[in-house]
Amino acid sequence: MMSERILVIEDEQKIADFLRRGLTYEGYHVDVRYDGEAGLKAARDNPPELVILDVMLPGLDGWEVCKRLRAGGNVSILMLTARDAVADRVKGLDAGADDYLTKPFAFEELLARVRALLRRNRVTEETIFRFADLTLNVTTREVMRGSRKIELTTKEFDLLHFFLRHPRQVLTREMIYDRIWGYDFGGESNILEVYIRYLRTKLETDNAPRLIQTVRGVGYALREE
Ligand code: CA
Q: Are 33 and 69 in contact (CB under 8 A)?
């Protein structure tokens, strides 16, 4: 399958790197430009399926870039805004953005928007993930272990979804924090361990075998014992 091309226009290095890393890992082809002019040029030279566009850019701002992108074709545009202001949202939609996301955000939130926008152009999409006797349906948000339904909170669901997209791979703690808690989640914390414990408790009732394994000193992996 040919990977979909995403153009990121964002001048903040930390966020640009975060987006490139995460989206590349999810199998997208990612181009990054750090200002509006360069972004518009990249979109002309090598048209992407989706543009992730920051509002606050040096030179041409995101609104202007959005209008020009819109004038040039029907690419999907996801805008990143700094504030959760209704005025910004209206302005963004007026400028022709398809959706917007307020900073700071966790990678999974962004990924959900990206998938939704790309889905419009796609015939089929994987919505049901399976591993061993575990099933997760992205559309209905139902999780089953065998014939037993499992109730998960949003964060638990996102975490399990991430594991199911990358079965048998070791996911480092850093990678998981990036995805589920976002790039601004700093410092030492044991919140991941707490969530892994919640998930295991819910997944392992009736002595069901463990599926989320600890990889000591590194992170976790979804695999059978
Ligand atoms: Ca910016």
A: no
Ligand 1 mean position, distance from CA 66 (Å): 14
| Continuous H helices in 73-124 | 86-94, 107-119
| Amino acid found at 101 | L
Cα 2 to middle of ligand 1, angstroms: 30
Q: Ligand 1 centroid to 35 CA: how many Å?
A: 9
CATH 3.40.50.970 applies to domain 128-222: no
pTM for the complete prediction?
Answer: 0.68
Non-local CB neighbours of 155 within 8 Å, separated by 6+ positions? 180, 195
CATH 3.40.50.2300 domain extents, the chain: 5-121
Pick the CATH number of 5-121 from 3.40.50.2300, 2.40.50.140, 3.40.50.720, 3.40.1400.10: 3.40.50.2300
How far does the centroid of ligand 1 lie from the alpha carbon of residue 13, in Å? 9
pLDDT, one tens digit per residue, over 163-202 is 998 999 999 998 898 888 876 665 567 899 999 999 999 9
Q: Please state, rounded to an integer, the average pLDDT across all residues of the chain.
A: 88
**Interval 48-76: pLDDT, tens:** 999 999 999 999 999 999 999 988 777 89
Residue 61 Cα to ligand 1 middle (Å)? 9
148 CA distance to ligand 1 middle (Å) = 46
